[in-house]
Amino acid sequence: MSIELSELLFNALNEQGYLFQEACEQALKDIERRTGWEVRAYEYPVSLWGQDTKVDIVLHAKRQSLPELYALVECKRADPSYIYWLFGAPGLPYRDALCSTLGFKSLSPISSAQPLQVKPLLEQLRFEFSTYVARSWQEVKQDSHKRVSTPQNIENAFGQVLKGVGGFAQEQLHQRCKEHVSIETFFIPVVVTTASLYVAYYETKDVDLSTGKVSKDKVLFGPQGQPAEEDPWVIVDYGVGENVAPEPIPESNHGVDPAELQKHKTRSIFVVNSKSLVDFFSRLQIVQ
């Protein structure tokens, strides 16, 4: 093999994000005993509304009590030009992590001749750590004389992980209907990235309506009175449509008010810096 070909193949190996995905899987396997989360599948294929997709990593919480928890992980190696992910949290304080997520609850039938009754759920689960809840997101480019930010790659990661959650939940729902065991199960979307995470904290009233901008002295990138600091993870409340949700609005809901309907279309996504994988999954425990 020539030096030129060897260099070409080496560069190709590092160009895509497969190595990062494999490294995340191995790291999560190595810490299963410490976190209580077990790797159950890798590159798991699912379908949603006739469209095929894959879940990078499927984790299952090794806990005895209900509800049962799955974490569906999308691995996203940041573009070398965009190594910072910035999240906007206007007027939102640091608080407990409330995760609006998809799930279902099944009740054992009275007799084996009766079908299993399954109820789709959209619940807010409370986890034991605190985090910012972001309302906007963008990748920030270094050393650019043109446009310095774009939300698109982050949006793509969000769409991908939610399609995976939708397809996986739909498959689990179908499989559980074959059983006669009561169960309550939820599916938590997680995006793991090499990007450094920062949160911009500001008040909406300080944004100038004539320009749509805010002055530098009105924005913080860390705790008040302290310098900017990187965040290990954030949570994003993300709106979804029918293409990434099995049942965004229950058939029993006949309302037309968007304010009422929106809560059925909101999914929470955890965004985690890859250096914080151990700490994140060690803390990802429900507060009963």
Commentary on this structure:
It is a single chain. With 288 residues, this protein is α/β, with parallel strands linked by helices. Helix content is 23%, strand content 38%. The strands form 2 sheets. Strands 1, 2, 3, 5, 6, 7, 10, 12 and 13 form a 9-stranded mixed β-sheet that branches. Strands 9-8-4-11 form a 4-stranded mixed β-sheet. Strand 2 (51-61) and strand 3 (68-76) form a beta hairpin. The longest helix is centred in the middle third of the chain and has 25 residues, at 152-176. The radius of gyration is 21 Å and the shape is globular. The relative contact order is 0.19. The model has no long low-confidence stretch (mean pLDDT 83).
Can you summarize this structure?
This protein is α/β, with parallel strands linked by helices. The protein has helices at residues 3-15, 18-30, 32-35, 152-176, 258-261, 277-283; strands at residues 37-48, 51-61, 68-76, 84-90, 95-107, 117-131, 133-134, 136-140, 149-150, 183-193, 196-202, 233-239, 266-273.
